[in-house]
Amino acid sequence: MIVVMSPSATKKNIDNVIKKLESLHLRTHLSEGEDRTIVGVIGDKKIIANLEMEMMAGVEKTVRITEKYKLVSRDFHPLDTVIDVDGVKIGGDELVVMAGPCSVESYEQLHAAAEAVKNAGAKILRGGAYKPRTSPYDFQGLGEEGLKLLRQVADEFGMKVVTEIVDREDIELVEKYADILQVGARNMQNFQMLKALGKSSKPIMLKRGLSATISEWLNAAEYIMVGGNENVIFCERGIRTYETYTRNTLDLSAVAAIKELSHLPIIVDPSHGTGRRSMIAPMSKAGIAAGADGLMIEVHPHPEVALSDGNQSLTPEDFKILMSNLNEIAKAVGKKI
Ligand code: PEP
Ligand code: MN
Predict the structure, then answer these.
(1) CB atoms within 10 A of CB 105
(2) Is the pTM of this model over 0.85?
């Protein structure tokens, strides 16, 4: 439920509403907009059903939220959330680009990728140290060694690190090295891990599951938020459809849907979304035009010898050209890059 305060409500009125709700062991979530304040309420459904908040001074009305997800909902929090990753903002009017190799392979490979993407304007270095591969015979990642390389190289270039976590047991370790923890498509509904990430102090980038509906995705984010971690970033990376020309079908309508339904930022990953190098540039532009808050793009200094996802990795040269072409699109939707 949300309690909508009237525009003339005083701070005391708002405090009294919160006090009353908390005295009933309900959890409140304050959202102060330009002209009115909204108090989101979660907790025991029976208690909420019997509340009579309209009687209290300063309350305009209460609205029931019928969806299961509450904290991620725009009804609870009408204004866009901007996540601050140590000075790098995700959300708002500045687009953020996360780029780097699919897998961390070596210092030389990561260094060359980071240098290229940083010089082209990316602020966040991506790279997998734990790789969820379809075949057990494929490269599984360097593990902690990969995390160390990510931190070292990102620090050399003044970048932030985003990297995937595939096991709840690794959370503490990955937190030591990364600035943003990525939940991959295959783990979007790993509820035990989502619950554990709700206790993390690091922002979480939650990729959309291979065949997850938008509602399932929003509920997965709710798992993280209800645990106390409010810094969740969505990432649309394509879903499985009957189409086989592309690796996945990049669902850009999900960007518009998430913007309608949630206040959280959303990033588009055209690399996994298409699986084809030639399609990264057009779908990056389309993602930004659709309202995404940024992009995640795989870049490898030598895609032809990449240990994973070479077919969808841009060369440093192609990435540089793409970044310079994104300016015009960003401007057209009132954003900077
Ligand atoms: C990745 O980002 O390298 C990755 C494995 O992504 P996804 O979980 O979207 O397949
Ligand atoms: Mn990949």
Answers:
(1) 24
(2) yes
